[in-house]
Amino acid sequence: MFVTSFRSLATAGILPLLALTLSLRSLLAVPTAGPAEEPTIAGESQDASQVMSGFKKPEGITVSLFAAEPLVANPVAFGIDERGRVIVCETFRQSKGVEDNRSHAHWLDDDLAAQTVEDRLAYILKHLGDKAGDYTKHDDRLRLLEDTNGDGVADKSTVFAKGFNQIVDGTGAGVLLRKGTAYYTCIPHLWMLKDADNDGVAEDRKSLHEGYGVRFAFRGHDMHGLIIGQDGRLYFSIGDRGLNVKQGDKHFVNPSNGAVLRCELDGSNLEMFATGLRNPQELAFDDHGNLFTGDNNSDSGDRARWVYVVEGGDTGWRMEYQYLSDRGPFNREKIWHPQHEGQPAYIIPPITNFADGPSGLAFDPGTGMTDHFRGRFLLCDFRGGPGNSGVRTFRNKPKGASFELVDDEQTFWNVLATDVDFNTDGSILLSDWVNGWNGENKGRLYTFASAEAAKSAIVLEVKKLLAEGFSHRETAELVKLAAHADRRVRMESQFALVEKNEAAALATLAKSSDSLLARLHGVWGLAQLARLKRDPSIAQPLVALLADDAGEVRAQTAKMVGELKLAAALPALLKLTSDSEPRVRHFAAIALGYLGDKSAIEGLVKLADDTGAADPVIRHAAVMGLVGAARSEENLKVYYTSSSPSIRMAMVLALRRLKSPDLGLFVNDIDPLVRVEAARAIYDVPVAAALPTLAAALSPAVTDDALARRMLGANFRLGTAEAAERIAKFAASSTPSETLRLEALGMLANWAKPSSRDRVIGVWNPLEPRDSAIAKTAFQANIAGMLTGGDKVRSEAAKVAAGLGINEIAPILIELLSDKSLSGKSRADSLWILGQLGSDKLNELISTSLKDADPYVRSTALRMLALIKPAEAFPLLEIAALDGQGVDRQQALVVLGSLATSDADAVLTKGLDTLLAGKFPPYASLDLVEAAAKSESPEVKDRLKKYESTRAAGDPVAKFIECLEGGDADAGRVIFYEKTQVSCVRCHKVAQTGGEVGPELTKIGTDKARQYLLEAIADPNRAIAKNFETVTILDLDGNVLSGIVKFENDKRVDLMTGEGKIVSVEKENIDQRKSGKSSMPEDLTKHLSKSELRDLVAFLASLKGESK
């Protein structure tokens, strides 16, 4: 039975349990959060000051310590108020309530199924029971730091608010402090906290809305990014932990991807502004009100994204992609790439791929520091260790309706920065996590400053203006300040004019100021006032500005009159859809959607046609306009048969947003891009009513991967005999790619008991069990073609046939077994499947295969013989286990470990004696030890205990010494690229694939021995790779040096300092030396079996620089 949407969870098997749990919540002993334990914070030390000399910074810029532990710890983010006070988000719940699916595979299905925060609480209780109360022992909190004497160093530290320790809480990852009111994003709430008596402690706290953090997903993918936009709204972001929030009659449901939201400062009028993000940790507006974020990559060789956050935009990420081994459409369809031909049309592509761990973000306010910072964004690049982390700065350059990134540089480096912002005194403040990923209960904030800028008149003026405030100022002064060089001053002046209800002054400012930026603040302010007063007529003067000579005035005015739904603006907005400026066309189209007038459809269709795929932002705006103007598909039907592919594409994109069954009309479109876009919409949204049409369009002639997968998926979900026949015909054809044929075969194999996770896009979308006879009949009807093609296809087809009980496959399997051109693993699979089928020739085949030249075939034959004739197999097993070579020996030991007989124990005893004598081959020692661990024999246990006692005490590598040799490099490759729990490819690049957080590994097998490779995984701090180790040295003369180790031998160590200079220090002159930790997680071995670790070492050792 087809489940129309993964929200139809009554048949899911998991959420019924959750619903039952929730219905009984009043009967459950749900642990409630009492006071959290006081966190243990590291004590004061000189480390924070000593490491500063290793920071890279521009010439002429100074660095000083503003605060360090014990005044502050584990700083995730911070905010600066108008008085220069710093409020810091401190976290103490990492892995103590704020969890990560990589460490909890047992609840992954529950997490994928969850639709509400209550669902998440229910499955926590289901899995943890009373232990769920442990999640309340630690809290996240807000800390207020103040420099009361003006010397640039914090001397007062106050806990502004604490006790955020409910079971479902955290991380508290975003804060904004303004006029004594703090906004705090701490899943599941957006909090507003007030310090009415100005003592540094919030007396009042109010949840503005809740329902954020539907899932655990990955740690760090939290709620953050608080910033006030030029329109006076509060903007914030959430990672792909998702949300399900109700406010009045509005219901915002987005459980599977990250989003940017906005609301009024009192929390009202919540809107979901943009979606499709993975982890947009911080947000920043430029001077023209354009919103940007850095979005993290998915640890699969993809790159992080610098994103222009467009209203209504979808940037394409879905949380479920994380649990597809290849990340599904995100990688397959190059969603994360910048704009390119053939890209999915429903997304807003990123400006560029940039950075590795984007976190804190700020934009130049217009004053302070040096001219070098004018117009620059500052983006923290957090990579787990200070040696390759810091703050990038760059500029955006207009490109069509979007931007391109220019002037990129690593301005502040060698510091593990989590957040960055401009202080009121013109300096830059940066928070330092210190080391690692989990927090060490340390934390620092550093000030980077220009001494010359700090003394400048304008910087002193800005500091004074911000501290004094704006509400008391006269209208004339506020109008003048709206043209100030500093954006913070301009915005506060605008907001004060709005508070004073100065509509006339704002209108005059918008029309006649000599400053373009002041005019924009007039436009924004007048619209803000009209919105807050709920009186659009206040903004009526803006209509005339739609014809203004300044393109940016036209653009921002179009945006504002659209939001206010000013009907009088309709004629001018229609005209602006053909404006010469791309940004004007963008905002005019969005505005027409707000107005909802059908007369706009023709102009918007023309805009979509003229734009095509050349500018995705304008195409998106045209679609948003069409959806709003048309309101239903009935008003768009006339364009379905247009001769223009661009118009038909616009129809598909609009119908996707309308979730219209009319999408089915486009699955056979003559344009391949329109076809596949229709398929994406039908399958991914999903639009269940159009699914049969999509399924019926499948044929072996469909070769586009994205299209074919969704057509196959549609048939798999329908589950009819006709659908199975279509899948089987596709699998049997030589036309589709090997990958697609394997996918079709996989569907037939799993027909009877389909996974609850969708095969194509990974969403939780359960299907009921089906009759395997349907798949069997379809396979049998196409059996001849199934076994044509490459090695992988034939081998998989044979497995599927066996699984379906198709005995007719046996003769073909025998042919495959005899085909020496195939790989040994493939031939061994054929032999094993023949055993499953109970072939009448099995004894003969095993006998022959025992003498085969390939070790995989031989060892499989011996394993099978042990199952059916153990007495006959035992002498062969003994010989192989004690004297065999390679795979034969390894597999014989595995089989012996499963026999549980005295004879097997005797062989294992001999093997352990040889191991204790140091004569057993290292490549099979893991197989021997693991086989012996299963034995109940006292003799085996005694020898195993003696062997374990030989391991070096306290050496974390010693327990894994058997993993040095004997691994399967192919299996290790899968672990490296696909095992989410270790995410090797997240940080390391091989050839052109992977991250740049850690060293490149393309030639690691040539450069390093296996011992080094094992140590790097099991004890990453033992020997940190060159260019990644940070060191602080105190020499005998009392000098402190800090930097990156570039060279070291027995006599000296060479450091690269923050200024880029190489300084050599003789080791005999070193008094104290302290090394920073590796950014490699120290617990990787917890997520790997020893066999997997051995395979991973084998893969790394195989990397010799050749293309893999």
UniProtKB/TrEMBL annotation:
<dbReference type="Pfam" id="PF13646">
    <property type="entry name" value="HEAT_2"/>
</dbReference>
<keyword id="KW-0479">Metal-binding</keyword>
<dbReference type="InterPro" id="IPR009056">
    <property type="entry name" value="Cyt_c-like_dom"/>
</dbReference>
<dbReference type="InterPro" id="IPR021133">
    <property type="entry name" value="HEAT_type_2"/>
</dbReference>
<dbReference type="GO" id="GO:0009055">
    <property type="term" value="F:electron transfer activity"/>
</dbReference>
<keyword id="KW-0408">Iron</keyword>
<dbReference type="InterPro" id="IPR011041">
    <property type="entry name" value="Quinoprot_gluc/sorb_DH_b-prop"/>
</dbReference>
<keyword id="KW-0349">Heme</keyword>
<dbReference type="GO" id="GO:0020037">
    <property type="term" value="F:heme binding"/>
</dbReference>
<dbReference type="Pfam" id="PF23500">
    <property type="entry name" value="DUF7133"/>
</dbReference>
<feature type="domain" description="Cytochrome c">
    <location>
        <begin position="967"/>
        <end position="1104"/>
    </location>
</feature>
<dbReference type="GO" id="GO:0046872">
    <property type="term" value="F:metal ion binding"/>
</dbReference>
<dbReference type="InterPro" id="IPR036909">
    <property type="entry name" value="Cyt_c-like_dom_sf"/>
</dbReference>
<dbReference type="InterPro" id="IPR055557">
    <property type="entry name" value="DUF7133"/>
</dbReference>
<dbReference type="InterPro" id="IPR016024">
    <property type="entry name" value="ARM-type_fold"/>
</dbReference>
<dbReference type="InterPro" id="IPR011042">
    <property type="entry name" value="6-blade_b-propeller_TolB-like"/>
</dbReference>
<protein>
    <submittedName>
        <fullName>Heme-binding protein</fullName>
    </submittedName>
</protein>
<dbReference type="InterPro" id="IPR004155">
    <property type="entry name" value="PBS_lyase_HEAT"/>
</dbReference>
<dbReference type="InterPro" id="IPR013427">
    <property type="entry name" value="Haem-bd_dom_put"/>
</dbReference>
<dbReference type="InterPro" id="IPR011989">
    <property type="entry name" value="ARM-like"/>
</dbReference>
